[in-house]
Specification:
This protein is an alpha+beta fold and 209 residues long. The chain folds into two domains: 70 residues, Glutaredoxin (3-Layer(aba) Sandwich), CATH 3.40.30; 122 residues, Glutathione S-transferase Yfyf (Class Pi), Chain A, domain 2 (Up-down Bundle). It is 56% helix and 8% strand. The chain has a four-stranded mixed sheet with strand order 2-1-3-4, covered by helices on one side. β3 and β4 form a beta hairpin. α1 crosses α8 and α7 packs across α9.
């Protein structure tokens, strides 16, 4: 019998996007439970904590950081970590979340409010991001600087994909970590630059899973 699986998350979270694509890659049918940016009440009731993504697998709660390893144990094939390459896969996966995501996020953060669901959610989002990153008008004034840095890092991903469909030739957690890291660009409705042909095609393959 197939497990009952629910993923609590929000589209603006790179960790959530990555977890969602991993589940799709593994062929796991799951229910997406939307968590508003400003309201974690249902999430807390269901999981006992307030961080996303949160996975419920037949009622068992899996914290965000444990999701890849948990999926690898539950569904043996296809593998997120190719044999003999788990270490390097984790390094690139982490680079996607810890380095690339920041380059993308600071570029598009002021474009996020229109894709949120309510005025309340938009107000809370802008307030929290302003507290963390400084005045909104300053973020907008530095947009060209942030954009140039983001494009440099997206070009690195394009170079990783030269002559290949996937970072290691077959899909892995490295692809999903890097895709998660760049996902805020996609969430606000933008596309990778047209000159980064390998990157654009790779994005389409992951989205089609």
């Amino acid at each position: 019998m197939a497990p009952k699986v629910a993923l609590y998350g929000m589209p603006v979270s790179h960790w959530c996007v990555s977890a969602e694509r991993m589940l799709a890659f593994k062929g796991v049918k799951f229910r997406n439970e939307f968590v508003p940016y400003h309201d974690k009440a249902e999430l807390i009731e269901a999981t006992g904590q307030d961080y996303v993504p949160a996975l419920l697998w037949d009622g068992k709660f899996v914290v965000w950081s444990k999701i890849p390893e948990f999926l690898e144990k539950q569904v043996k094939e296809p593998r997120l970590y190719p044999r003999g390459m788990k270490g390097v896969t984790k390094v690139i996966e982490d680079w996607g979340h810890q380095v690339l995501e920041e380059k993308v996020w600071r570029t598009v953060v002021t474009e996020v409010p229109p894709v949120l669901h309510t005025d309340h959610e938009r107000w809370v989002f802008e307030e929290m991001q302003t507290r963390a990153r400084g005045p909104w008008h300053v973020l907008k004034s530095r947009k060209a600087e942030f954009e140039a840095d983001m494009l440099k890092h997206l070009a690195m991903v394009d170079a990783m994909l030269e002559g290949k469909e996937w970072i290691f030739g077959t899909p892995s957690a490295a692809d999903f970590g890097v895709y998660g890291g760049m996902s805020p660009l996609l969430t606000v409705g933008r596309k990778p630059p047209g000159r980064l042909v390998g990157l654009r095609r790779w994005v389409e393959r992951i989205r089609a899973m």
